[in-house]
């Protein structure tokens, strides 16, 4: 089977790291187009150099509207565009089959429809899609079996906190039964905050206008809502909040649950340990 021809829209942190991972699987994925609203030189530079994940081994160059990635004898030249809307992106001649939508902007079926109008078959969105009925939120180890290739043409891998939380919820809920719970996630800063105090135009949250370098900023998290999409019986039973902290790559989630039967610390730990060694091996750590 030939590799899937895919494009990335949005070359921020998620888009760039997805590119790195895809490069390691040339028999599965073939990159045919990149789009972002920033300068091509900046995107090429940031693909190569990452302050958290380090310098990438392949050579990355930008010229004549293309980004070229070279690693030994292997070299791929990918067309790059600067379109703000999906409608303005040209995939002509690329044969693109799948798009990784990593802008964080197009988060409803209606906003994603222009991809399909261009002949794209599948769209993977890097953030939860806010629609009713909901788009399938896939958390590996919890519900990937629900994916139906005949009907699920838009999928999302939920969020970072949801992927952290869902495997724990799965174990506790299936083994002990969750009646209600509260979630607090301590989360690294993001680009929706400011480096120094300044008006914040992206979010109507005054806390994000304060410097992310020296403040702890309480804010919302959609993880509790997303968990209810994976475990519908928990809808309305979980609540959560986030605190942004001055770190660039961190996240820790504290969960407090009321469960349906009496249990002990030893039993809970044993359940999590068993899951980490069996049905959630490689997903849940212990």
Q: How would you describe this protein?
A:
- This protein has 286 residues and is of the alpha/beta class.
- It has helices at residues 13-23, 40-48, 109-117, 160-175, 223-230, 265-277; strands at residues 4-9, 29-35, 49-50, 54-55, 59-63, 66-71, 74-81, 98-101, 122-125, 136-137, 154-156, 178-188, 217-219, 238-245, 251-259.
- The strands form three sheets. It has a nine-stranded mixed beta sheet, with helices on both faces. It has a four-stranded mixed beta sheet with strand order 13-14-12-15, covered by helices on one side.
- It is globular, with a radius of gyration of 21 Å.
- It starts with a strand and ends in a 9-residue tail after the last helix.
- The model has no long low-confidence stretch (mean pLDDT 94).
Number of strands: 15
What is the H/E string? EHEHEEEEEEHEEEHEEHEEH
Over the alpha carbons, how many angstroms does the gyration radius reach? 21 Å
Helix content: 10-25%
User: How many helices does DSSP assign?
Assistant: 6
Write down the overall geometry.
globular
β-strand percent reads: 25-35%
Low-pLDDT regions: none
Q: Which structural class fits the helix and strand makeup?
A: alpha/beta
Side by side, the strands of the main sheet go: 5-6-7-2-1-8-9-11-10
> If you average the pLDDT, what whole number results?
94
Major beta sheet summary: 9 strands, mixed
Taking the alpha carbons of the first and last residues, their distance comes to 37 Å
